[in-house]
Amino acid sequence: MTVEEILSKLVSFPVLGGESNLSIIHWIQEYIESHGVKTTLVPNPEGTKASLHCRIGPAVDGGVILSGHTDVVPVEGQDWTTDPFTLTDKGDGLLYGRGSCDMKGFVACCLAALPDMTRANLTKPIYFAFSYDEEIGCLAAPELARAIKSHYTETPRFAIIGEPTMMVPTVGQKGICIFQTKVTGSQGHSSRIKQEVSAIHEAMRLILWLESKMDGLIASGSVDDRFTPNHTSIHIGNISGGLAPNIIAQECVFNWDVRTIPSETPQQILKEFEEYCRQREAELKQRFAGFRISTTNKHPAVPGLDTRSNQAIVALVKELAANETTDAVSYAAEAGQFAEVGFEAMICGPGDIAQAHRADEFIAKEQLALGVEFMNRLIKKFSE
Ligand SMILES: [Zn+2]
């Protein structure tokens, strides 16, 4: 099958993040095994989803993992002009379809190169690692990375995550964490604002604390110019609470995200925030004993990626991509998770992240061809 035929097949599986991906993973498994390569599935506890890994080439140290996710984001509420789950060629050099860019394009490049990989006399192994539930928080990658590390007797050295970077070798990625904070105050007539505790008024104080925490980090020079923006961002995305203008709010809930540069962690910010919350509680419990502030993690922390230019993977990816520049991205991806398990990791894949997650998502045929070239150079490099 050509890379376009494979991509067309992959796009036809409408597997969203959070849903069972068995349909697409079983198709990929059959395809790989039909080329004589043994695969291993890493299922979730319920058996409704699975990641897949396999090795092509000899069981020796120093191999490279090619990693992609099989799920996509929803299309509901988006104004598509084509069927999102039918790869559509309008003749403009672009292939339209949900996941064409993020990131079934890269997975298609891996699979299209598989016959050549099996025929080549590889001296170093190439692994495929395909996950699920990436789009709802990179949930499956840590287990997949650990499974690869423990399954094989040899140790792979590198992991290349094929998120769309226009084939630019990418060494950095921000970490992300999502929190929900719930403030419980006391209800009452609005005239009693000095006797009761308004959950909204207190939530507002917490939000301003978070904003000034972010500004304080920037002012202290905690920046990393590889990223745009170059600082850790803290953002409150939605808030709800209260009943009416003349009722003191008993409850207020807000959701916020922290996107950290590699030198900072969301845990440190959360720790300081919690200290401030305990101060506010101690003060306000004197007025209303039931006053409470609780913060829960709504999304496991996805670590950032901070690959240094002297690491061997940087030279490798630059050579495979035929691109001497490096970049950093501000979106979350699975690369930091592979790095945490001990693989040298980078992000490099076909397509533009600007096309991801939107109506009429597409990948340029030219980008897909660059992805195929990347695979060809890898095969050559690893059979030397
Ligand atoms: Zn993606």
Identify every distinct bound molecule in the structure, by name, code or SMILES. Answer: zinc ion
Mean pLDDT: 96
**Cα radius of gyration in angstroms:** 24 Å
The profile of the biggest β sheet is:
6 strands, mixed
Please state roughly what percent of the residues sit in beta strands, choosing from under 5%, 5-15%, 15-25%, 25-35%, 35-45% or over 45%.
Answer: 15-25%
Give the class from helix and strand content and strand pairing: alpha+beta
Tertiary shape = elongated
Strand order of the largest sheet: 1-2-6-3-7-17
What fraction, in percent, of the residue positions are helical?
25-40%
Q: Which segments are poorly predicted (pLDDT under 50) over 5 or more consecutive residues?
A: none
Topology as a string of helices (H) and strands (E): HHEEEEEHEHEEEEHEEEHEEHEHEEH
How far apart the termini lie comes to 26 Å
Helix count, DSSP H or I runs of 4 or more residues? 9
| Structure summary, number of beta strands | 18
Short description:
With 384 residues, the chain is of the alpha+beta class.
3D structure, described in words:
- The protein is of the alpha+beta class.
- The chain has nine helices and 18 strands.
- It has helices spanning 3-11, 22-33, 104-119, 141-151, 199-219, 266-284, 312-321, 335-341, 365-382, and strands spanning 39-43, 50-56, 64-69, 88-89, 94-96, 126-131, 158-161, 170-173, 175-184, 188-189, 233-241, 247-248, 251-260, 292-302, 305-306, 327-329, 344-347, 362-364.
- The protein has a six-stranded mixed β-sheet with strand order 1-2-6-3-7-17, with helices on both faces. Strands 11-13-9-14 form a four-stranded antiparallel β-sheet, with helices on one face. A three-stranded antiparallel β-sheet has the order 4-5-18.
- Helix 4 (141-151) runs parallel beside helix 8 and helix 5 (199-219) packs antiparallel against helix 6 (266-284).
- It is elongated.
- 45% of the residues are buried.
